[in-house]
């Protein structure tokens, strides 16, 4: 995908794969990278605009939509992996809230901007969800 001169939003951009995606978008010539994070972001490139964005918060999603004027590529990267044995409903709800509903809510909220630009959606999922075994219960249930 050519993202030169495009506007990109990456959720979960503060560390790991998300941070690497921000750096790669910049390397490939993105015009603007909106970096959605739950905490402060350290980046000195003036093409990066940090957005406070917890994908489980409808108000933060709406604020992010209000701050973005155009969008060509949405990369849903935010996610959690809490290992459990399906005995704790709170853990299952957290997995579904972030990994499934968060992705769905962010995509739905930014869809008008993506339609306007004839943009693209990239959902970053983990192959680890295919790994069946002890303590992977809720992770397998939402992305496996």
Layout: helices, strands, pairs:
Blueprint: E1 7-11, H1 16-27, E2 32-37, E3 48-52, H2 58-67, E4 73-76, H3 89-117, E5 120-123, H4 137-143
Parallel strand pairs: 1-2, 1-4, 2-3, 4-5
Helix pairs in contact: 2-3, 3-4
Descriptive labels:
alpha/beta, Rossmann fold, five-stranded parallel sheet
Secondary structure tally, helices: 4
Summarize model confidence as the mean pLDDT. 88
SS-based structural class? alpha/beta
CATH topology: Rossmann fold
Spatial strand sequence of the major β-sheet: 3-2-1-4-5
H-E string: EHEEHEHEH
Cα shape: globular
The figure for the number of domains is 1
Unreliable spans: none
- Tell me the helix content: 40-55%
What is the CATH top level name?
Alpha Beta
Q: Which value, in Å, is the CA radius of gyration?
A: 15 Å
Concise synopsis of the structure shown:
This protein has 144 residues and is an alpha/beta fold. It is built from 4 helices and 5 strands; from the N terminus they run βαββαβαβα. Strand 4, helix 3 and strand 5 form a beta-alpha-beta unit.
Description:
The protein has 144 residues and is an alpha/beta fold. The protein has one domain (7-143): NAD(P)-binding Rossmann-like Domain (Rossmann fold, 3-Layer(aba) Sandwich), CATH 3.40.50. The protein has helices at 16-27, 58-67, 89-117, 137-143; strands at residues 7-11, 32-37, 48-52, 73-76, 120-123. It has a 5-stranded parallel β-sheet with strand order 3-2-1-4-5, with helices on both faces. Helix 3 (89-117) links the parallel strand 4 (73-76) and strand 5 (120-123). Helix 2 runs parallel beside helix 3 (89-117) and helix 3 (89-117) packs parallel to helix 4 (137-143).
